[in-house]
């Protein structure tokens, strides 16, 4: 997927040492509020034509105010994408806590959460597209995604498993679900994806039985 995006810098970056809010509780609260508003905009509208000025409109402020709190557009974009993934992780973990005692059941419960556009799926897909289009600039969006998603997947593995087994299975789940999401977003078909999910769940059930 190729994503055409307007220049994000608007020709301005924050001067070194310009952000004076560090260490201030009030400044941090303001920064978090701005970030939440920009994150809401990304979740609703995706990354296409993202810029500091668009972010400023979404946050009901000016791009100069954003430059006070963030080190330019790329920094703001990276932090907003991180926050989008946090929201998805929080909702996914909440879904796994609703009476699901096995890893297989937890993974099945996570899937509807991952497919929700309300939680910024389109923006996250476009972030992957940006990484493929300009890896020198945006590869960190994909790397940070892996670093965020793996710890929660490790946490829902059976506690008696070895660290190595947890890592192997968590990586399998992450890679497989990413593939399902890409397939779904590019084809719009769900029958084959649901069949693949059923196969993943059965594999996890066998894994749990073997390691039990």
From TrEMBL:
Residues 1-25 are annotated as: Disordered. This is TetR/AcrR family transcriptional regulator.
């Amino acid at each position: 997927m190729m994503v055409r995006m307007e220049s994000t810098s608007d020709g301005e970056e924050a001067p070194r040492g310009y952000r004076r809010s560090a260490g201030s509780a009030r400044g941090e609260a303001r920064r978090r509020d701005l970030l939440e508003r920009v994150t809401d905009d990304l979740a609703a509208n995706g990354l296409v034509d993202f810029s500091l000025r668009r972010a400023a409109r979404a946050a009901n402020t000016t791009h100069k105010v954003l430059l006070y709190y963030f080190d330019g557009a790329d920094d703001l974009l990276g932090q907003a994408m991180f926050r989008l993934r946090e929201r998805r992780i929080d909702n996914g973990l909440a879904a796994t806590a609703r009476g699901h005692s096995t890893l297989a059941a937890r993974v099945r419960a996570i899937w509807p959460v991952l497919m929700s556009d309300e939680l910024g799926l389109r923006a996250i897909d476009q972030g992957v597209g940006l990484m493929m289009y300009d890896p020198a600039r945006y590869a960190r969006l994909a790397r940070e995604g892996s670093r965020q998603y793996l710890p929660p997947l490790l946490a829902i593995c059976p506690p008696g498993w070895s660290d190595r087994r947890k890592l192997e299975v968590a990586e399998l789940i992450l890679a497989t679900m990413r593939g399902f999401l890409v397939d779904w977003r590019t084809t719009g078909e769900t029958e084959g994806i649901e069949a693949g999910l059923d196969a993943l769940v059965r594999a996890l059930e066998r894994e749990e039985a073997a390691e039990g």
